Amino acid sequence: MRIGVVTFPGSLDDVDAMRAIALAGGDAVALWHGESDLRNVDAVVLPGGFSYGDYLRCGAISRFAPVMTEVVTWAGRGMPVLGICNGFQILCESHLLPGALIRNDHRTFVCRDQRLRIENNRTPWTSSYAENAEVTIVLKNGEGGFVADEPTLELLEGEGRVVARYLEVNPNGSLHDIAGITNAQGNVVGLMPHPEHAVEDLTGAGTDGLGFFRGLAMLSA
Amino acid sequence: MARYVVDVMPKRKILDPQGKAVLGALPRLGFEGVTDVRQGKRFEVEIDGDVTDDGLAEVRRMAETLLANPVIEYFTVHPDEPPVEPAETTPNVTRDDS
Fold first, then answer.
1. Quick check: is B97 in a domain?
2. Which of A16, A41, A167, A169 could form a disulfide with A115 if both were Cys (CB 3.0 to 4.6 A apart)?
């Protein structure tokens, strides 16, 4: 399966995401923010980082990149899209996902090995996890507090659209301990922790993150 | 030159960590009786020509599209004094819009 990774000005984790896709058995394809060409990919990852320096609001300017017009169009047709950290922020700004990410409630950047529960394994990005699997994936963000109004939170909870939830510690003030959500169709996933940094034993806290990329690779098999 | 001001503020229900930090600092500096501080953003948008209703509507669209995120923020738009013209030619228009 061809999985594209978009590089925006200020993206940080695009290379790690491509490496994670390759390790999971996928075919990683580099995509450029300024081009409207998705290069016939089957899925897209919006990686972490600080696109446009987080100016205005995180993801607010990247949302209008030429590539995002294509991403929004194809996401509407069911193409799997995963936004990690800054990518999650871009998906919210694009209205592909509800809610928003705001500055951590404790006002400091957080970097830790985070316990998570994968509560929804019905998305293409989480299909290789057992339901309610507990995993450890590194988290690093300054503006990772997920917020939404009460009706939206009820909708997300009621429809099982909370994909991942923080365990033990709420690291950033996210409402309902939400670490990741999906859209109504279940093809677009936003995730604040970084599975692409948890794919090799040599670095990080293990390989629990590989499942996010292996799920799609298995789909194509 | 027409100048419009867009004020963007975090919604009351949304946590404002930056405002909270300022609120915490003020008493330490001896400012007493401060009960709340909210921190927002101010944009000054300059457009060719005079202040008009169309210009105001255009700036409002800018705010809706880019300057504010309605999920977490609200905004007001109003014309402001042009930066260089004398005060007597300033259009006598003040309008708040939320």
1. no
2. A167
Residue with tokens 């339901």: A131
pLDDT at A220 over 70: no
Report how many domains make up chain A.
1
Question: Mind listing the pLDDT tens digit for each residue in A59-116?
Answer: 999 999 999 999 999 999 999 999 999 999 999 999 999 999 999 999 999 999 999 9
- Which chain A residue has the Cα nearest residue B67? A56
CATH of the domain at B58: 3.30.1280.10
**Active-site amino acid positions of A:** 85, 194, 196
Q: Report CB contact under 8 Å: B66, A56.
A: yes
Interface test with B, best of A91, A103, A141 (most B CBs within 10 A): A103
pTM, two decimal places: 0.91
Instruction: Output the DSSP codes for chain B.
Output: -EEEEEEEEE-TTS--HHHHHHHHHHHHTT----------EEEEEEESS---HHHHHHHHHHIIIII--TTTEEEEEEEE--SSS-GGGS--------
CATH of the domain at A198: 3.40.50.880
Structural domain for A71, as ranges: 2-220
**Domain contains B95:** no
Number of domains in chain B: 1
Cβ contact (<8 Å) for B21 and A60? no
Expressed as residue numbers, the domain containing B54 is: 2-87
**A107/chain B closest Cα distance in angstroms:** 6
Instruction: Tell me what the mean pLDDT of segment A128-151 comes to.
Output: 96
CB contact (8 A) between residue A102 and residue B14 = yes
- Provide ipTM, 2 decimals: 0.88
Q: Quick one: tokens of A97?
A: 């996902």
CB A67 within 8 A of CB A35: yes
